[in-house]
């Protein structure tokens, strides 16, 4: 692992970009792993039905029947076969405010057009339309246990990708990637039809190489990403931020650096200066190199004759073909997503079999990262970015079988001091506004709520999360969520508002 003090704040790995390319290709729907990233992206599977296993709702006076509290229950998802990977992945998206705000732009567009155009927009973006319906149900405040099905989401994905979701296609990370990728391709289509802001999960990383011999750079390549891939080692424990930082740099040995080779040639020629008779062709190549060297990238494309000359240069013991140096592959986030999804790849390949890393990955409610500011493709400075934890998907079991569950942040409810009216300060999906609960008792988003008028809800302060295992919902403390270090599989963070 390299520790570069001058440049220590990138947070996107190459694997993420690779996986992204793979997932942006719908033909790969039935494949399980990226060939080049096989070990890192191998999936965690579910083979057993997951109903209620190892997950018992505490029996209390209010646990089964109704609760007066609006933060006691939330809607669970049916598990028809081995759907816990799907249910957990979808539940995790519910509290992501930037997603809600983003989808509401689509809702507004639907409201502002006539019926025929509604049909056209829903045809363009069927996953948007169905996700809006589902998230609306999952965001609605309820007073007693309730369950819905996510089968429309599966059907939409199957129709869009013209593939059946196979019964062994059940890794939560893979499902989430495919879901995001499909949403993103719909987003591209929507952009030319409605006014819509940026896609909440899309970030841009910039990847480049630096030669450790000459300290020169390669040209920079910008790649979009939707999810951050982090490989979890077989160690006893690691901090999430360390894993993220370390996943960004990679040392490559035996690189044939163009700058170093040209530099060698020009130094050697300076030494040999008066000795040989140059052909006109060689003279012009050398002049070309002298002119270019100051602006040369370590992987520049040179004209074929120059390139051949550089690669086959051999004079006076100076042989460029023998020259190799070590380089660092750097990955930097230059545009961070509003919502950062981090996948902890826990699969370890020992040469024969794949096992699951039980490394304890310590994570906090706050995630402090840094954005690289690049000017003219050169590193300029870093700027801090702060993310806040919204959801966690955990996986228990082995590499080949297990169960997925989700922790999801409750909405930001407060109580009006005078009337005891509950106010939901989290944005909610706008469509289908008939709440199951008596809507008159809930005001939806109130902006600029004064603290004097509202008070905290004690149960929500004590239990800020729901722990959801398919249809079973119980309340969870922050410490419950953060103690899942052995089982945490996907983390959902949202950028803190300034
Ligand atoms: Zn070099």
TrEMBL record:
What Gene3D superfamilies does the entry give?
A: Cysteine proteinases
As one GO molecular function, the record gives:
cysteine-type deubiquitinase activity
What CDD domains does the record point to?
A: Peptidase_C19F
- What Gene Ontology terms for biological process does this UniProt record contain? protein deubiquitination
Ranges for domain USP come to 75-496
The protein's superkingdom reads Eukaryota
User: Which Pfam families does the entry mention?
Assistant: UCH
- Provide the Gene Ontology terms for cellular component: cytosol; mitochondrial outer membrane; nucleus
PANTHER family referenced in this protein's UniProt entry, alphabetically: UBIQUITIN CARBOXYL-TERMINAL HYDROLASE, UBIQUITIN CARBOXYL-TERMINAL HYDROLASE 34
Its recorded name reads USP domain-containing protein
Q: Record the organism.
A: Kazachstania africana (strain ATCC 22294 / BCRC 22015 / CBS 2517 / CECT 1963 / NBRC 1671 / NRRL Y-8276)
Classification of source organism: Eukaryota, Fungi, Dikarya, Ascomycota, Saccharomycotina
């Amino acid at each position: 692992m390299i520790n570069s003090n001058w440049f220590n704040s990138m947070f996107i790995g190459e694997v993420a970009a690779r996986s992204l390319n793979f997932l942006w290709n719908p033909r790969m729907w039935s494949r399980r792993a990226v060939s080049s990233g096989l070990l890192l992206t191998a999936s965690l599977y579910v083979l057993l039905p997951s109903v209620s296993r190892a997950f018992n709702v505490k029996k209390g006076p209010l646990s089964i029947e109704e609760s007066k509290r609006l933060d006691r229950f939330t809607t669970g998802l049916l598990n028809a076969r081995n759907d816990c990977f799907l249910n957990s992945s979808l539940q995790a998206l519910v509290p992501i405010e930037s997603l809600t705000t983003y989808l509401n732009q689509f809702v507004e567009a639907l409201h502002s057009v006539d019926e025929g155009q509604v049909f056209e927009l829903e045809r363009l973006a069927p996953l948007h339309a169905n996700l809006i319906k589902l998230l609306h149900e999952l965001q609605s405040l309820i007073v007693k246990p309730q369950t819905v099905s996510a089968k429309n989401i599966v059907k939409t994905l199957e129709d869009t990708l013209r593939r059946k979701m196979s019964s062994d296609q059940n890794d939560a990370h893979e499902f989430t990637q495919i879901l995001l990728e499909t949403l993103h391709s719909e987003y591209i289509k929507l952009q030319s039809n409605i006014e819509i802001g940026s896609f909440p999960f899309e970030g841009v990383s910039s990847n480049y190489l630096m030669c450790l011999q000459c300290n020169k750079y390669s040209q920079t390549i910008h790649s979009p990403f939707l999810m951050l891939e982090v490989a979890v080692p077989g160690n006893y424990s690691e901090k999430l931020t360390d894993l993220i930082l370390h996943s960004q740099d990679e040392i490559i040995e035996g690189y044939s650096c163009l700058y170093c080779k040209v530099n060698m040639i020009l130094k050697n020629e300076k030494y040999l200066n008066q000795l040989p008779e140059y052909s006109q062709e060689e003279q012009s190549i050398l002049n070309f190199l002298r002119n270019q060297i100051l602006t040369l990238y370590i992987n520049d494309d040179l004209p074929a004759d120059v390139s051949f000359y550089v690669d086959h240069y051999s004079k006076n013991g100076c042989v460029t073909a023998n020259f190799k140096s070590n380089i660092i592959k750097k990955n930097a986030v230059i545009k961070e997503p509003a919502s950062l999804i981090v996948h902890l790849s826990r699969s370890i390949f020992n040469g024969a079999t794949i096992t699951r890393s039980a490394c304890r990955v310590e994570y906090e409610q706050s995630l402090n990262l840094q954005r690289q500011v690049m000017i003219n493709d050169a590193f300029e400075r870093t700027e801090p970015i702060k993310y806040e934890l919204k959801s966690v998907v955990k996986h228990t079991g082995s590499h080949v079988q297990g169960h997925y569950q989700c922790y999801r942040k409750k909405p930001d409810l407060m109580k009006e001091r005078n009337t005891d009216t509950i106010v939901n300060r989290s944005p909610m999906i706008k469509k289908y506004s008939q709440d199951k609960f008596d809507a008159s008792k809930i005001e939806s988003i109130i902006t600029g709520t004064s603290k004097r008028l509202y008070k905290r809800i004690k149960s929500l302060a004590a239990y800020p999360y729901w722990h959801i295992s398919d249809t079973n919902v119980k309340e969870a403390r922050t410490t419950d969520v953060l103690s899942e270090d052995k089982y945490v599989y996907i983390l959902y963070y949202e950028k803190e508002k300034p």
